[in-house]
Amino acid sequence: MIWIENISFLFAFIVSAGMATIGIMVSYQLYQHFKSTLYSTLLYQQIFLFSFLVYGTWGNMALRTIISDLNLSDIITGKLAFFVPIIGIPFMVVSWFMLLKFALNLNGYNFTKAFVLVYFPLLVVLVFILSFLIYKEIIVIQGNADLFVVRTLLGLNLMVHLFFILPFLKPKRNAPLLKETAFGKKWAFIFLLTVTGYSIAMNFIGAFGFISVCISIVLLFVSGIFIPVIIRMKCLPQEKSNNMDFKAFCSFYEISKREAEIILEICSGKSNKAISEKLFITLQTVKDHNHRIYTKIGVKSRVQLANLVREKTGDIPLL
Question: Cβ distance 224 to 20 under 8 Å?
Answer without folding.
Answer: yes
